[in-house]
Write a structure and sequence with these properties.
The protein is of the alpha/beta class. The protein is 43% helix and 12% strand. The strands form 5 sheets. The protein has a 9-stranded mixed β-sheet, sandwiched between helices. Strands 1-2-3-4-5 form a 5-stranded mixed β-sheet, with helices on both faces. The chain has a 4-stranded antiparallel β-sheet with strand order 15-23-19-21. Helix 17 links the parallel strand 6 and strand 7. The longest helix is centred in the middle third of the chain and has 23 residues. The protein starts with a helix and ends with a helix.
Amino acid sequence: MNAVEIEQAVTELAEQSFDAADFPYAFLIAFGNKETTIKRLRTGASNKSDIGGVLQTNNIHLATCAPGDIAATLTALRDSPATTRAKAKFILATDGIDLDAEDITTGETIACRYSDFPDHFGFFLPLAGISTVKQIRESAFDIRATSRLNRLYVELIKDNPDWGSADKRHDMNHFMARLIFCFFAEDTDIFVSDNLFTATIDQMANRDGSNTHEVIGEIFRAMNTPIAKRAEAKLPRWADAFPYVNGGLFSGSTDVPRFSKIAQRYLSHIGSLDWTQINPDIFGSMIQAVADEEERSVLGMHYTSVPNILKVLNPLFLDDLRAELEAAGDNARKLANLRARMAKIRVFDPACGSGNFLVIAYKEMRALEYEINKRRGEPLRRTDIPLTNYRGIELRDFSAEIARLALIIAEYQCDVTYRGQKEALAEFLPLDAQNWITCGNALRLDWLSVCPPTGTGVKFQADDLFMSPLDQAQIDFANEGGETYICGNPPFSGLTKQEVGQKDDLRFLFSGTEFSASSVDYVAGWYFKAAEYNRRQPCRFAFVSTNSMCQGQMVPKFWKPFLRDGLAIRFAHTSFLWKNLAKNNAGVIVVIVGLDSDSKSSRELFTGEVRIATENINPYLTTAAVNIVVDKRKPVHSLHELVRGSIPNCGGNLVMPAHEAKKLLEQYPEAQRFLRRYVGAQEISKGIVRYALLIDDKDLDLALEISELKERIGRVREAREASDKKSTKEVLSKTPHRYELISSVGSAPSVVVSRTTSENREFLATDIVPSGTIANDNAFFSEVDQLVIFAILVSRCHLAWIATVCGRMKNDYRYANTLGWNTFPVPKLTEKNRADLTAAAEGILLAREAHFPATIADLYDPEKMPANLRAAHDHNDEVLERIYIGRRFRNDTERLEKLFEMYTKMTTKVSA
């Protein structure tokens, strides 16, 4: 279950009549426990409570009690030996009137009315396996609001199916945006009386919901009618209490979907929430899921943490402003200059979604401005920071509307915080009708028209914020002439996962350039557009990107032509997990790259919490000065090349597990001549034994005399004839005994390295296999220099190189022979060097052998790696690294600096 589903379940539990006997089990079900788990607890099979409650091991000890006995019951739960033995994380006591709970690990407690405990559901999210970092707990209101709005949305679409059609989707989304504004306005004194919107509907609408749409329509019409025109508008008296809002939010169609009795009840439930708690930092990205059928199925997974966003914004420009504020101290003139600078800053997110980056940037800027005003003795001064300097482009219209609404709410909340409720209210309505969030395709639009550098040339003025054409910027900048910062989190669409339209976007964008649309991730388009913008108007820009943008072929294919005209990486965050609220969500491995053309800019590289000030950051996100590594057909060193393994393309029919090979030989001993050991990534790491058939053309007739081989060859033909690939269907099917690609199978043992190695391992998955073994295309091998190559492949130096220059699958190491092995700088080896490396390799193999039959996967678990094996690897690293610099390297940074230095010299020499 995700957080929104849990909130819904908890809310429904609190609304039911309290059943003391059943509550503990219903509570656990609400947090995702399965019926089998609950059954075991009910029967006592797993319930170890010693005070008559319910105790779930490693989770919670809870009990119900008589009215007034909560404190004593909670103490009994806390003091219970069973609570300690079962390592319970929480204790909870309730009498159906009140509820108390405690997080035993942190000591944090909650105490509330029983009916209000859903307001604290975030406190218990660890029970569902969801991490409750501070930011997630603070988003509890947003999750509750999203959950209830979703229920209303689904109910309305059920009763009004035409509103779910493509033609009416915009109207439905616009209606939801209006509702959100009304709920916020009635709880924050924007409306003249508390609860005005919800109370008016409760009073004027029929209980069965039959006229609710008419009541809401009249309220919306009132908020679109200026006070001076109210009389001629002939509004009902009860609607006249609503203010004129303007801003286009309530203009256009006043159609409202019809409400059932259930939908009206949901509307009332939404109104009962305390909307003063809305957090525009993250609310927008959650609420946009309500209007998207696919996203609604994973509702609650749309949380982008503020700390992650600040990883972009802080080094982009906020840290610089804070440093200037620190340097200004209490100097009134310097503070005024900083305030004037901030008032001109433009923040532009060309993939803004529902506005998270813009909202957080605006709020951080307002906080800095308030500190300036305090130091100057002007704490109540009106802000000089125009909201319209925070601009965005968003493909989906509803997200664009929500982004505008989130920014409006953020502005109002900042005014209340820094100037007071009275001043904020006086200036909030009517809303300005300017449109500063553009709806459209960012890779097709002219960014200079959306975010003009001087404020001139964009003259179209809208009188309708939400209903006017959105494919162009519609206002000039206030306080023109300032700095521009471009930032955001463009769509995560890797090279192989792009939709047809996305590929077309890149082809359109790169037409006539040296960039290849078929060789880059989708986010490359945003970097390209930002660089083009920078050439017309100097700016600084940074994007969150999948880490593949800074690995493997992406570096020579994109970054090499991209970094020109003085453009350089100013700051970067190396790979980290971009997670959300989803239970057990794996997240996406991302990097952040910030660039500018200012040669005087400082450079900062962030790895986790470590910040390194440096003179250089290369596209691999290391500090080494490098020639970008490109594929090499032959090694730059003197060792033998690694060959990519064979490709059977046989539908599995030429390959078999060990037990099938044994059975084949029992029936047909003569088949022995056709069987070879067969290895790939799984066989290397997990010790799986498989065999493959290898049949020379001259031996085909002999093979066909063996009935099982004849059947297998026949099935290969059928599989290939069914292929959609023309060459497979028309050519390879004619010779079904042959592999699509067969690498050499010699008489000597081979060193093999897996194409993929888990990120959790400290060494590449590498082994020595017997002579005659066939490696498949998930491995690379060499029959020459086996032990010397083995020693290098399992070294820390080589792993650091592969982790940097080769692409990854998620965060696992992805080996490539032409990019990883052929480019790897190896010093010229003497005979003694070779002998020492051979001995070191043998030491590792002997250490492995001592733990037979443990597999590489077993042996290289970082927490369980045998001491003698680790010692053998340490010795191997020392032998190799002394060949490079006469001692051990201090760390990977030093390793890479040396390797890139050697690569540059070796490739420059070759080129010369």
